[in-house]
Design goal:
202 residues
Amino acid sequence: MKSVGKIEAPALIAITLGPLVTFLGYTIAAMFFPGYDGMVHTISDLAANDSPVQVFVSLVFLFGALCDVVVSHYSKTLATPGRIAILLAGITTVGLTVFTTPSQTGHSIPHRIFAIASFALLAIWPVLSMRRGENIPPLLRPRAAIIQTAVLLGTCIWFISLWADKSSGITGLGERIGVAVEGIVPAVVLWHSFLWQRKQNR
C-alpha cells in the first residue's frame, strides 16, 4: 500500500489561526468604521482606499494569505493539485489586497477578479485534494471530497449572485457566511485527517 504524507503541525496552526484572525479582524475593524453595515457592505469595503481601517484589514488579509501558503506546504496528505489550489488561493488573496476597492461606492476590476478567483479556489480544493485507498483519511476520499466541494461551490455561487445583485440587502452577510464556510470546512478536514492518521499509527 502506497504511503502518503502527513498533516503536519504548522498546517494545523495555520488552518486554525487563519479563519479565527480573519473573523476577529473584520469584526473589530467594523466597530471602528462609522456607518459601516456588515449586513450590506462587503469585507473588501473595510480595506477600500477611503476606509479608516484599510491598513489593519489589509494586514488581516495578508495574514490569511500566509496561512494558506503554510497549509499548502505542510498538508502533505492532500493530493498535489489540492495543495496547489490552496497556494494559489493565498496568492490571489495577496492580489485582492494590492488591488484595493477605490471607495465605498466604486469598484476595481482587478480586485473583483482576484476576489472571485480566491473564492473559487477555496471552493474546489477538496475535489482536487482527494485520494483513494484505505490508508487515506475518510474526509479526503472521493465521496466526502465531492460533497465538500458541492457545499462550498453552492455557498460561493450564492454569495456571488448576491454580489452581482445591486438591490441585495444581505451581500455582506452572504460574504461572511461564505468566508466562514470556506474557513471551517478545511479546518475540520485537516484536524480530522491529522487525528485519524495519529490513531492509525498507534
